[in-house]
Fold this protein.
Amino acid sequence: MKTAVITGGAGFLGSNLCDRFLKEGCRVFCLDDLSTGRMSNIEHLADNENFRFFKQNVYNHILIPGDVDYVMHFASPASPPAYLDRPIQTLKVGSIGTMNALGLAKAKGARFFLASTSECYGDPTVHPQTEDYWGNVNPVGPRSVYDEAKRFAEAMTMAYHREHGVATRIVRIFNTYGPRMRLDDGRALPNFIDQALRGEDVTVFGDGSQTRSFQFVDDLIEGIWRLLHSDEVYPTNIGNPEEVTLLDFAKEVIALTGSNSKIVFKDLPKDDPKIRQPDITKAKRILGWEPKVDRATGLKITLDYFKKEFKL
Ligand code: UDP
């Protein structure tokens, strides 16, 4: 039986990953400081004998008994309001936390998997974004606490691979949505759903012409699973190339909820990327992976989850 340590395991992505590893017959040690993760994301696993939860911040030393086969490093605030509220914590978990997680992988001879991000590309000047694009990040802007922490984490991961021979994998995750997201995490989709269901104004930042490409969480988890078991050391984009403007996205959510909400425009946050779309040629080629869930289907599943979970 293989053992996986999943940092950030009570978060949106981490908890979906816990489920996948358990389904694949693995034992899971889930670490989370619950700063943005939630116990309700993992409470269905409480009686599973192959699952253990430790409340811990991974920028403190990580001590795990016995053999470990995989270290999946997913701990970090990930939504812009969450990391802007916790700038130093975000930098620490991306730097010291990544070092500790890599140290654990090295000590155990485990495979290390880094959850990186399309934010590495910043406000991109290349479109769609390919993995060999080095990005356009403002190192001293407010978003840099997340972007630069993740860029540092990638550099640290490659250094452990080159210097210590740790088997490492890096995924660059593009905007992802689905069950287990927080309703209050401040990202566009939960905001829009919450506002639309309450009949409040739907807040579009800027003029809404900025684009994003949203992928459903199940597609991401499948991509991660395949990348983990591949031989690819360099970063790989996993995202859904279906691109949409934020204004059209807000309209889709309003239509889906059958709401009478109106759209209002608010200031665009500083350094908000104007465009974002993954080039997934590499993932298709090396993993045989591509997204399967279209936005209409994924949004419906997510809406049902939010309604049930948050009694909306
Ligand atoms: N956004 C918006 N209204 C909101 C929240 C976000 O228009 O209530 C915009 C935000 O400015 C960005 C896009 O939606 O252009 C996606 O933002 P999100 O926070 O979901 O993630 P990001 O891709 O910026 O990390």
Summary: The longest strand covers residues 111-117. The chain has two domains: 3-176+216-238, 179-212+242-273+294-310. Residues 79-80, 175, 187-188, 191, 203-205, 210, 212, 246, 268-269, 272 surround uridine-5'-diphosphate (CB under 6 Å). The CA atoms of residues 255 and 288 lie 34 Å apart.
